[in-house]
Amino acid sequence: MGARKFSWGSSDRKSAEQAGRGLLGKMGQRQAPASPATSSKDALLLLQNFEESGRGWFWSIDAEGRITYLSESICEKLGAERDALLGKEFVELFLKPDTSEDRQRTLPWVLMRQSKFDDLALQAADVEDEIWWAVSGRPYHHANGDFAGYRGSGADITEQRRASKDNDRLATYDPLTGLLNRHRMGKLLESTLSAFQLQRRACSIMLIDLDRFKQVNDTLGHPAGDALLKQVAERLIKVVGDREKVSRLGGDEFQIILQDEDDRGILGEMADKIIKSLSHPYSIDGSRCIIGASVGIAVSPFDGQSSEDLIRNADLALYAAKGGGRGRFRFYSSDLLQAAEDRRILEEDLRDALDRDEIWLSYQPVVNAQTNIVTGFEALIRWNHPERGNISPALFIPIAEETNQIGALGEWALRKACDDAAKWPGKMKVAVNVSPIQFANEALPKIIKEALSTSGLAPGRLELEITESVFLQDSDDTDSMFQRLKDIGVRLALDDFGTGYSSLGYLKTAPFDKIKIDQSFVRGATEPGSRNGAIISAIVALANALGMETTAEGIESLDQLDLVRELCVSHVQGYVYSQPVANDVLLEKCEEGKWEITPTGPAVQRSDRQTMYRKIGAIHDDHYYNIVLRNVSQSGALIEGIVDVPLGTKFVIDFGDGQLAVSSVVRSEGAQQGVEFEERLVNDGNGGLCTSRRVSPYMMAAAGVPMTSLPPGYYDDVERPSGKKGLPTFSTVSDWKAG
Asked: What is the value of pTM for the model shown?
């Protein structure tokens, strides 16, 4: 045992018979009067019978802690001869306890005290199966009072320990998936936040909700749903890499905790991996099904310091992700409460939009990639709100789907597109999107026939764009619907190809005339090291082999156009040719029966630039300027509000909520400056951009950022900067106008 903090005294080895007498001495004294020899013999027999019963065992050690006696039964369980164990240190028979346990209940500690102990739980060392004993001991002394060693007993408590462990597991883990349960995750989150708040460390949580899980339960049954949840749990563990960070809150809700992680680039990438992983097909008892997932993310201390606040805000982010169309992630931001209220108002307004003639169609040209001649148009639904102006389809289409309004909107768009196209000169086609909800409607073929008949449009000029999501469940109804549509004579296009996870097997039977290559494959295809070009080439080869046309969506730059032409894509759609146009503009352009468009645009692909009008801040030296953000991309922004700023000037752009981006002025004209960020912005999960990291509120307050621009609740203990500030370096537009 190495150096000891105490002295055992001299060794006094006892024989097994002497050890037995000592252990049962008092028992013998309580028996009926008998001769000393008879009492000693009876005690030894009782000892032997008890040991042989297997209900317990005995041990004794000398003052040095070495074994002087050990019951045969424990020797057998340890897989060793008794002679080999005699003289060995007693503590070596047992595993060292976990360091998290109370050190005052370890065997070396209680032996060091030289006092009695009872029912000390110890686990056997060097055995194949897990064995636990409850060990008790009493010290004994020589006639002169010197400590001589210990004598004691032990009992097997393995089954009790296993039962206790099972009970603890039931209280801590979800019995279906084996993940942490809600109670355990709540305790873990509380303890983590409590410790991290003092150390000012970050902690992130993700809330995950499965999309379309109810359909699996309803169609395949609850046992299939349980099997699916188990597979979901394994996929989450694979992405996260640590089972103890993932919990099932109940139903189809999951939670992930990530200590010391606040990089929203990394968090966004993980959320995206989770969504993609959970969206891959599942095989349940021979049936194939596909679900999706939405993710809400909140980061402490920026989005809350208590577990209640953090979970509430992650839940708001999850709600926003689901409201944005599902299958996406969102970070919490302080404007989500207002966004939720805005969405509720939009939902109400959308119900009356058709009756108020606020819905209209615009048409984006589909162009032959080799001749630059327009061959048709895609009908795109638009909403001109009386107060908010044009509402993005990315915002109102998901609302229409969730509120069961998509059927009415889709039918209106189909009839309106047929009416407009019937009046176009020539034989240009019109493409109309059909949602999965419309596709599942038995009345769809009848609606299409009526639209064609009423408008007089030839069936071959109508192209229905259908996404892979119609194949989420293997069904004879799907094949039947395809056949009924082809019997009408309309064309079918597979939209957003490659973004879903359906089997390519359906291409053998689904009668598509065209495959549309999603713009996500086009974006970045011309960048060095991109594999998107190879993917596009493979899609074109597949389409050619199946006798289908191809259309590349979202082409915006000339280098992208050159690439898809080289890869033999047959048709192109994107701003490089034209933005969507109103029907009257279309008629004017096609007056002579055809429309040839010369492609124009930037020579090379550049970062997407989002136009906006948003008040933000800019920090230079020790001054904070209120400015307006006019547009932003991953690499830079256009700001307005500061007058005559020299090139190369450094600004820290404050986007709010702790988002600070160091930038340099690369273009300056009057009150407008183009700035380039030192670190690129990252995807915020909602089609927007955000900084990869946020600056601690404590640091922002200490740096002198105005309290009105900081989120509340964090800074009571922060020392504000002192000292007189210098004069501002630049004038603002308001100063200039006042002067």
From this structure: 0.60
